[in-house]
Amino acid sequence: MRPVFSLLALCAVKVAAVDPLVKLSYASYRGTQLGCGVTQWMGLPYAAPPVDELRFAAPRDLDIENKEYRASSHGPTCIGVDSRPGDSSVSEDCLTLDIYAPSAASAGDALPVFFYVQGGGFSTSAKPPNGTSLVETSGGNMIVVTFTYRVGPYGFLGGVVSKPNMSKKSAPDFSANNGLKDQLKALQWVTDNIASFGGDPDHIVLGGASAGAGSVVLHMANPANNASFVGATLESASWPAMQTAEQAQWQYDNILNATGCAGEWDSLACLRELDTAAFQTNTRSKTHALPGGTAAPVYMYSPVLDGDVVRDYRYSSFYTNREHDVPVLVGDTTNEGIVFTPSSAGKSLQAADDFVASQFPEITPANLTFFHSHPQYKPLIKAGNFRGFAAQLYGDIRYVCPNLFLSWVLPSRSQNNNVWTYQWDVGSATHVAESWSVWNGYTGKNSTLKPLQTAIQAYWISFITDLDPTAAAAKYAATDAITPPAWERSANAQRQWVARRMLFSDKKAKPLAPKMESVDQDQWDACAELMDMGVQLRQ
User: Fold this and answer.
1) Which CATH class is domain 4-319?
2) Is there a catalytic annotation at residue 103?
3) Which part of the chain is the Carboxylesterase type B domain (predicted)?
4) Contact of 456 with 470, CB cutoff 8 Å
5) Considering 210, 302, 435, 462, which one is annotated as catalytic?
């Protein structure tokens, strides 16, 4: 694959006098044809703007306009807890998606589709990644869809609005988990419309990183959502503690107090009447400890159990075989927790324990004492590296162990034995560090890493197109003269977990190459304990 600077320069050049026009049932959109054989449509709305009376409401259908639009720029990023009031790059009117397709594709080609959910801790948002490299490296064999969804209080405000506080009857009801509902709305839009761009609505692979992957897990765990997909890629899927909507009432009440709406008979109407800048000014800096915690968590907002899109804790759902039975590619990095762990957690063992307990208040002092002496964590404590201990335990609880759990439970609880596991150990290997290479592959900047960067992107594309990371990886890596090794499944033919995963590491002897490894026994033993505690920790 060409270096990224050459790719971007070439892809900035239009090669068609008339840009591609796609006519949908409600509007028409002109995309931009790029010089690298990729056409993009940017900023396509997939739901009505969630503003005014639609703030805190489930996403609504778009109006039929029968107009033509030029889809040449990204829509605004969804406003998050860290967004500055008045920042023009963010907005509540943010429910848009971007499509990257081969320029040669046409309606009816039925190309595989990669539908990607970016992360942000369910609280913040960022511009979705650019899908050009994936489409180009695939040789025009796939389509990429990225999108934005509501986060923070706009997308994940918990609580129940009782009848005395209900807004006027003509206004939509308060809705929980709107960020997840936005995702399902976008997925339905893709199912309904992607054929017009050359995609196959019956071959959609969901992918995500961090909270995005955690969202995909929740969609997997609830077939009642009617989400239509045939596979899933999960990068460091985030499993925060979840409350019921009723238990999260404190969130709604805190918002009322922060905005001055607490004394209003119709509190929901009061919240909806505030303009975005006023709402953000009054809520942006407000953080609170979770019930039972002593300090604010890293991320205050997360999905809640609402009896609708989230019906049970994740561990319970998968233990009882209530999930979409699809092929899965799942993994993590070696240093998941360190970027979230403050230096203050390193002051003492008690400070480390307090940090972990603030993220998962249901963990008990006895639980923490047990892990103090566990071989997975004891060396860190013995060395006085209390921040390292807190980071390792937090990373294991929220990211590593849930991913290993899926690699173990999915083959044994379903008819589908197609689960592949990995770990990324390149450089500092912090949270979702592999994602850059998945989206960009080898860019010519560091030839030493070429075998790893080329291979991981080729594996991803192969999974998207063939639902198997090995099946077509050699073809997609051929441009860089790399032959990725075969990626073994996480379970044997009898669907028994074999504790094997693909390791991408630059810590081994040169030349570098991905290779299969056994999961460290101390890691697995610690995860087995944490899996048993999963429901206790409200995961």
Assistant:
1) alpha beta
2) no
3) 20-493
4) no
5) 210
